[in-house]
Amino acid sequence: SVSFWAGSRLQKRVTAPTEYHLGLLKAKLAKYRAQLLEPSKSSAAKGEGFDVMKSGDARVALIGFPSVGKSTFLSLMTSTASEAASYEFTTLTCIPGVIEYKGANIQLLDLPGIIEGAAQGKGRGRQVIAVARTADVVIMMLDATKGEVQRALLEKELESVGIRLNKSKPNIYFKPKKGGGISFNSTVTLTQCSEKLVQLILHEYKIFNAEVLFREDCSPDEFIDVIVGNRVYMPCLYVYNKIDQISMEEVDRLARRPHSVVISCGMKLNLDYLLEKLWEYLALTCIYTKKRGQRPDFTDAIILRKGASVEHVCHRIHRSLASQFKYALVWGTSTKYSPQRVGLTHMMEHEDVIQIVKK
Ligand SMILES: Nc1nc2c(ncn2[C@@H]2O[C@H](COP(=O)(O)OP(=O)(O)OP(=O)(O)O)[C@@H](O)[C@H]2O)c(=O)[nH]1
Ligand SMILES: [K+]
Ligand SMILES: [Mg+2]
C-alpha cells in the first residue's frame, strides 16, 4: 500500500496543471518582494534630501536612467535650476521645482538616475522608488538614442516594488473573515483564474476564511496584488528625450507608442505637447466658484485631485467655511439638475460650478 500511495501522489504531481504551479510560485515571489518594500533599517542607506514636502496641486516624479536629461528638463520647465552634466549620477538628491499650468501648481521632482537592481537598493534606487510611490504621475524619461531596453528594465524595477503603471486596480472584492471558509464567486467568465487556484493562492498567504468576488477576468498576478494590498496604481508617461539625435523614422515610431511623448530638451521641441499630455494624465478637477446673482469666475479655478467633495472645495476657499456651510448649488456634470442643491459629501466633477450658501 506504501507504493500505491507514492504512486498516486506522484501521479497527482505530474498532472497538476501548470497554471496552479505558476500561480503559487507567483504568490511566493510576491511575498518575497513585499519584503523589499519594508523600509531599510540602516540610516546610512537613507540618503539626504529625499523627504521633500508635498506642495501644490499635484506631484510628478522624474524617473530614468542616468544622463537621460531629467535635470535639463526640470531646469527648462520650472524656475528651479538643477545641475545637468554629461557624466552619470550628476543629481544625488531629490530636487523640487514647480510647473505653473492652467492655474495649477504642479510639483515636479528631479531625482537621481536609477539603474537595474534599483529596487534591491542599488545606487539610491530604494529612495528614488519610495519618492515615485508618492507621486500622482510618473514621467519615465528615456534616452531616445538608447533603444527600448531601458524602458523594460525600469518597468520591471517599479513593478517589483508594487508600482503598477497605467493599470487600474483589479475589480475584485476581497474580504478576509474570521470563519466560514472561502466563499468564491464571479460575475464574469474567468479564463485565467479558477476557484481552486484562488484557494491555493489564499492558502499560500495563510488565509483560510475570506469572501472573494471577481468582477472582471483577472489574472493570478492581479489577484495576488489584491491580497497583498499595498500596490499603487499610477499613470505613467514615457518621455523619449534627445530626439535631435535620432532619425525621423525612429521619432515617428516612438511617438506612436502607447503613453509616449517624444521631446528634445536640447532643442526645446514638443515641450508644450508634453505639458498638455501631463495635464491629461494628472486628470485634475477644476472647480469654478460663483457668487449669488453673479456669473461664475472662470479666471480662477480651484484645482483638486479626482474624487474631491464639496467639503474639499470649502476647505480650499477658507478653513472655517465648512463649519458655516448650509448648502451648495452646483452646475455641471456631477449633478442631475443644474443647479442642484447638495451637501458637503457631494462629489465634484471637472468644470463644475459651485455657489456656497452659509448658515
Ligand atoms: N542631444 C541632447 N542632449 C541632451 C538633451 N537633453 C539633455 N541632454 C544632455 O544630456 C546630458 C545629461 O543631462 P542631465 O540633465 O544631467 O541628465 P540626468 O538625467 O539629470 O542625469 P543624472 O542626474 O546623472 O541622472 C547633458 O550633457 C545634457 O546636456 C537633448 O534633448 N538632446
Ligand atoms: K547627468
Ligand atoms: Mg540629473
From TrEMBL:
Molecular function (GO) terms for this protein are: GTP binding; GTPase activity
UniProt keyword annotations, A-Z = GTP-binding, Nucleotide-binding
Q: Which residues form the OBG-type G domain?
A: 58-283
The record's listing under Gene3D superfamilies reads: 3.10.20.30, 6.10.140.1070, P-loop containing nucleotide triphosphate hydrolases
Sequence ranges assigned to domain TGS in this UniProt record: 283-358
- Which is an annotated Pfam family here? MMR_HSR1
State the function annotated in the UniProt record: Catalyzes the conversion of GTP to GDP through hydrolysis of the gamma-phosphate bond in GTP.
Q: Tell me how this protein assembles.
A: Interacts with RWDD1; this interaction confers protection to polyubiquitination and proteolytic degradation. Interacts with JMJD7; this interaction is direct.
Name of the protein: Developmentally-regulated GTP-binding protein 2
Q: What is the lineage of its organism?
A: Eukaryota, Metazoa, Chordata, Craniata, Vertebrata
